[in-house]
## 1
Amino acid sequence: MIVIADSGSTKTDWKLVQQDQVKSVTTVGFNPVYHSVTRISGELKKAFMDGLENDQVKAVYYYGSGCQETSRKQIVATALQEVFTQANIVIEHDLMAAARAACGQEAGIVCILGTGSNSCLYNGTEIADQVTNLGYMLGDEGSGIYLGRLLLSAYFYRELSDFLSEALTSWIPGGRAEVLDKVYNNEAPQAYIASFTKFLFEYKDHHHIQQILHKGLSDFIRRHIQKYEGHQTLPIHFIGSVAFHFSDLLTELLEKENMKAGHFLKHPIDHLVQFHLTTNKNLQINEQ
């Protein structure tokens, strides 16, 4: 059996591949920037210790946010090894997951727009260039966090229409105190801030919301995509819920800059399964 995981800060998609079947599992998300070995292993044990013969897992291919530096990878590897005791553990950054899922063996620019954001230039084999990712405190342009922050700022600074302000008040009945508590007193406030993209999508046709979306996504294009060599000739692929739900606007913004949108994938996990099946050709499977 092999296990493939695609983990963001909000949730992790798992595929357990054995002989003629694939089993899907979903757990909370992990990010070694914020989460410890104990926290990660504890969640994994709850999800996998019952109903799975862990010693039959021979390899785990884990792609995760926050897994770029060796020290961060080791946090996740240690936690995984506590659960999958006989497995060879391979940790890759979530950008590699996005690149392999979207590009296969072709070159392209790959962008992640979910709770957070990231991007890279992929040459068909490896990541050839990457604009620095500064995280949700300093960067994450175009992400759910970035867009949610723009919305909340506009709301509290009285920049929204009365209609939108009234609608958003029903989402946060506790007002400023509720928001500040969830942002500053929680271990990882990113998911809470990013949750407001649901509001943005619900009212995406309102001109104030369009302004917020246009700014947030344009900032990502300007600060990330346009920094890569070949950005006007290579396909630009997107992974993540924000990109998926606002694909029309992203395509429009790219076309205005003479750039070409490629694939929009909400979840890369199924494409990662196919990628690893090509390197484990003896596994012929059916999805369950």
## 2
Amino acid sequence: MKRSFPLAVALIGALGALSVPGVQAQQTNPNIPTPAPSPIFPVNQPVTFRYTDAQGMGSITFVDLGPDQTTGFDLLRVNITQNGTSFSGSGIATVIPGAPRPLTDLVAFTVVSPNGVAYFFEGMMGLGVEFQGSGTFHPVSDPTQIETWGLLFTPGTPGPPPTTLSLSIDRGCGSGYPINGPIVITYRAAANDTLTLTDQRSDGTQSVLFANQPVVAGQTYSLSGVVSSQPGQRTLILTDTAGAQVTCSFTGVNNQ
């Protein structure tokens, strides 16, 4: 899985001179306050949803801090947990006037991986039969590396059971790597097992990096390699003896 940011909303209106006899502008009673918009989520109460992208399933937690004093948008703390890794950050959400249900809320946020790679997310969400949302994200350093994300199920739904496998790369999943440049792959399992690591290219072809490699429960292993000369997206797939898998994608690029 596989991303502070500015958000500007401009409304430009052109009003010509208009005179209509017998029609007057309605006056607003200053003694009747304008109701404040409701927050997207209950303020200062964490709400958790199931989260998914190309790297697998995890959980996403929002904490709504209430409206920003300047824009009126809700300020959010955000945490995504996936494949044993936690990504934390912040962002905003706001209701989109007139948007059709269920996707009535705009959301945008940035999260940072433990190794410092930042990802920018944007999308829409809202309540239908259940609360749902979807959108795209990319590394802050490269907006061309776009992937999709989604959230689903009702608030408070616990995340999936902890995965027994963990797979990551030194720049963070979803990052770009220079052709013929170095890459470090890190993996581990929660139980004694034998693992297989496969490199899948964007055309669907695969190569096995190692097969039936014994590992000790909880121990972290690293594999250093070189990105091949073929540009494009690659997906690393780590599989245990029971067939469970975790994935981590990256893109081989020229001159980076």
## 3
Amino acid sequence: MVFIIDDPVVGLGLLRTARLSGYRVNVIARRGCRWLRWTAGCEEFFEVEAERIEYDLINVIREYGFDQESYMCLAAGDIATGALHEAAKNLRAGTQSVMDAESRGRISNKASFAELCTELSLPIPRTWVAEHKRDLEALAAQPDFLFPIIVKAVNVGGCTEARIVQDKQALTDIVHDSSYDFAPLLIQEFIAGEDASFSFIAKEGQIQVGYGQLCSGAGVSFPADAEIYTYAAALCQATNYSGPANIDLRLGDNGAIYLIKCNARFWATNPFSYLVGLDLIAESGFRPKVEVINRTQYVDEALYSFTNAVRGIVAKGPLSADKALRYFRSVFCDIPGYLFTQLPASRRLFAL
């Protein structure tokens, strides 16, 4: 198996998932990700220039001898995912599910995702798009514009560029902030509530496996929600989506559900899938399923936390002993990987 990594945080999650499921992985990563070689799932590690992953991936895979039918290639990061999709049609090696770039771009771009949700009558926060930050003040003058809002870049992954804006003065501060030079910008109504997500693998518009995920300071749980599943299924069908994806959601204080964006790739928190007994890598096509699962949504209402796992070991808590052991294995099976997740500052030391 080969992982192509341009986003080290997503790559870390995928490597931890591989280790939990018993896989050893050959890694091709962009320079600057050397600390990933310390994760327990890493077999061999190769560094290349980031430009080669984006523009010359097929030759990189061939140079290292991985273009053989016995290998399966998976990608971590938006650039690697797009490059692998482009190279897949000319590779002998297997790859994660492939879809056309236009459809993938439509669901992964924040602005076009909002448009798609509107077309499908799926719930999203009130949304505006500004081609440049100088347009923000004029936008705020519209009669239907309300604060607070979130301002974020349309084409930048993660949340490092996102800003919560409480009033017009804070919006003006963004306009005059020379360090904030993203464009275009997505502006959305700020929804008071908590974050959640729905993660899945789809093929030709149909969800194969998926699970809802709710993280908080108290732990992580996997609640059942038919409404969220229906929204994800509608998006997959409308775009004929194939591959892994993660939809970010906001659960409003008023009980309403809002779709925020879709990461059309593997996601950083995918090791949590192990807690519900899901082998994401097998589901992505690495090997035939051992058994046929008669459901496409994995659910576990238990709250996974260190405290509950300790109580579960002595049969006094909400987790069974089996679930508690699964939780501890997710921590101790890959100590470096867990350390990198909890203490990002350690990555630089291991890179040396």
## 4
Amino acid sequence: MLDGDNVRHSLNRDLGFTDADRVENIRRVGQVAKLFVDAGTVVLCSFISPFRAERQMVRELVGPDEFMEIFVDTPLEECMRRDPKGLYARAKEGKIKNFTGIDSPYEAPENPEIVVRTSDGSADKVARRIVESLRERRIIG
């Protein structure tokens, strides 16, 4: 699993949150994911990827048969309500710049393979749905 926070504290610690840095963040993650995919590993990438063009770039990089976009569709209001790290509150106060959904845009996917909504049920139920999709596409056995 490649997680946005972990990658930002290691491989991409030299990047900020400007649009250019966000593009580079996803480009690097895509390259790492491709290395794992080429080695036969299933890679789960958990990132805020705000731009369609970069998601498409990664799809093309790893190959369409190896890429499945899962859009976790949560309303901004719900993200702000949950806000476990207090980031949305700080962004609204102007203490964090270029924050997705506040002062930086987010381009929702147009054709994700799976859409997960907050109301879709438990995390276990959603995970089972994703695993079933991976099986249907013969990504996992």
